[in-house]
């Protein structure tokens, strides 16, 4: 007689991660960014690097220099698995199998969740004269969370911006969200009280957006998604 294992039990959306998880990962990103800014142009030309090159360098520093180094408390293998870049995930209904958020961090020890769809999903976009907050950051970034391409089982995710001088969440992102016809913003970006402000990074701001898909598992509308905006100054 063949004995089949009981299928794992999980529900969607997954229960929220504790705020400390988000703060640790954001602190690691900021720390990596400070390191990148200190590099000379021969090591890494941050001022002129394109989106993919910048994200690749950010990932390398997170993995090679910060993870398990003690530089950021909690950014180690007691809490999370090292960040991956461009890992492939299916969208909410499995019709698209190769959706690739820029970075993903797995939280260790989570139970009662679908492990393959859990964790911290991070999308990175430049914001400057050639990459507007509306077309690039919103339509090619935020929209992927709204329509269920990324983080569809989660209720929070991170958007990172590589911004040029003079580009700030207020007014650039606020104006773009107000004008957007494809993104329904329920709560405009506002400062996260637990997030610090450093010289090269704004205080994390948090917004909430209506999602436009139903869960295959339940037939119910997906709840709104909270996005944490980390804007890094070049």
Per-chain topology:
Blueprint: H1 19-38, H2 51-66, E1 80-85, E2 103-107, E3 120-127, H3 133-146, E4 156-163, H4 169-179, E5 185-191, E6 205-209, E7 225-233
Parallel strand pairs: 3-4, 4-7
Antiparallel strand pairs: 1-2, 2-3, 5-6, 6-7
Helix pairs in contact: 1-2, 3-4
What class, by secondary structure content?
alpha/beta
**What would the average pLDDT be, to the nearest integer?**
94
Strand order of the largest sheet: 1-2-3-4-7-6-5
Please compute the radius of gyration using only Cα atoms: 18 Å
Discrete helix count? 4
The first-to-last residue Cα distance is: 63 Å
Order of helices and strands: HHEEEHEHEEE
Poorly predicted ranges? 1-6
What kind of assembly state do the chains in view correspond to?
A: single chain
Major pleated sheet: 7 strands, mixed
Strands, count: 7
Beta-strand level of the residues, as a percent range? 15-25%
How would the global form be characterised? Answer: globular
The share of residues in helices is 25-40%
């Amino acid at each position: 007689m063949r004995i089949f294992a009981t299928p794992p039990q999980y529900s969607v959306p997954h229960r929220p991660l504790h705020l400390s998880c988000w703060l640790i990962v954001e602190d690691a990103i900021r720390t990596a960014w400070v390191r990148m800014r200190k590099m000379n142009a021969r090591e890494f030309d941050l001022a002129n690097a394109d989106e993919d090159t910048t994200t690749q360098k950010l990932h390398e520093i997170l993995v090679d220099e910060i993870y398990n180094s003690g530089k950021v408390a909690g950014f180690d293998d007691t809490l999370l698995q090292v960040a991956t870049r461009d890992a492939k995930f299916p969208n909410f209904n499995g019709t698209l199998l190769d959706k690739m958020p820029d970075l993903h961090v797995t939280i260790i020890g989570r139970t009662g969740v679908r492990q393959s769809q859990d964790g911290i999903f991070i999308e990175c976009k430049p914001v400057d004269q050639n990459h507007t907050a509306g077309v690039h950051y919103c339509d090619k970034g935020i929209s992927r969370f709204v329509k269920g391409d990324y983080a569809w089982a989660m209720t929070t995710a991170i958007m990172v911006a590589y911004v040029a001088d003079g580009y700030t969440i207020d007014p650039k992102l606020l104006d773009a969200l107000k004008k957007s016809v494809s993104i329904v913003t329920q709560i405009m970006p506002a400062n996260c009280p637990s997030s610090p402000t450093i010289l090269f990074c704004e205080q994390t701001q948090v917004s909430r957006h209506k999602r436009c898909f139903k869960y295959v598992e339940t037939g119910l509308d997906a709840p709104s998604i909270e996005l944490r905006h980390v804007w890094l100054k070049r």
